[in-house]
């Protein structure tokens, strides 16, 4: 089998008649890469409700192969731990291939060293599961981010903001009391 014929076979197997991979400029295309069928389905449904078109891949190799045969996406959501090719390897290979769309790591890991290594592969951001639209709103067109989404997963940051807001409110109230006296 020639290289050209092999490429056609790969293309047919990967796309399986689904043409969502072709970005004609009108749709916002998201590639969801995760080995867990339930997670892929949930992420797909969340994104489709917001008007995104979604292509699915079950491992990093499938994501790389999609790009090798000409696929183009506006955003990639990449799981870290997958068989065949993990998210770290796939992200590194995609960046080496010149893929420059945002790649967001999605993981259940909380180990700082693992997250740092994943980021160093070329991620634009890394989000801990469970994924919500609010956590990725800044990457999606027409989806407003809530103020709490930007606080991250660290509850201590949230407490600091709340403490600062309480201090400001207290100072404002005492200033208003002083003016009224």
UniProtKB/TrEMBL annotation:
InterPro entries, per the entry: CheY-like_superfamily, Sig_transdc_resp-reg_receiver, ST_Response_Regulator
Q: Which CDD domains match?
A: REC_hyHK_CKI1_RcsC-like
Q: Which Gene3D superfamilies match?
A: 3.40.50.2300
Q: Which residues carry this modification: 4-aspartylphosphate?
A: 79
The Response regulatory domain is annotated at 29-144
Query: In what ranges is there compositional bias, type Low complexity?
Result: 170-181
Ranges for region Disordered = 161-181
Q: Name one GO biological process term.
A: phosphorelay signal transduction system
UniProtKB keywords = Phosphoprotein
What is this protein's record name?
Response regulatory domain-containing protein
Annotated organism of origin: Hevea brasiliensis
């Amino acid at each position: 089998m020639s290289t050209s014929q092999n490429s056609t076979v790969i293309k047919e197997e990967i796309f399986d008649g689904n043409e969502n991979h072709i970005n004609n400029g009108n749709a916002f295309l998201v590639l969801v890469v995760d080995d867990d069928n339930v997670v892929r389905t949930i992420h797909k449904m969340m994104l489709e409700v917001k008007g995104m078109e979604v292509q699915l891949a079950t491992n990093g190799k499938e994501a790389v192969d999609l790009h090798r045969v000409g696929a183009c996406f506006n955003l990639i959501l990449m799981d870290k731990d997958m068989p065949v090719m993990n998210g770290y390897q796939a992200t590194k290979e995609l960046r080496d291939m010149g893929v420059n769309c945002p790649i967001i790591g999605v993981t259940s890991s909380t180990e700082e060293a693992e997250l740092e290594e994943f980021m160093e592969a070329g991620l634009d951001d890394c989000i801990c599961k469970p994924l919500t639209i609010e956590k990725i709103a800044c990457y999606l067109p027409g989806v407003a981010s809530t103020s709490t989404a930007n606080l991250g997963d660290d509850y201590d940051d949230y407490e600091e903001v709340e403490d600062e807001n309480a201090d400001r409110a207290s100072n404002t109230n005492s200033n208003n009391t002083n003016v009224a006296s």
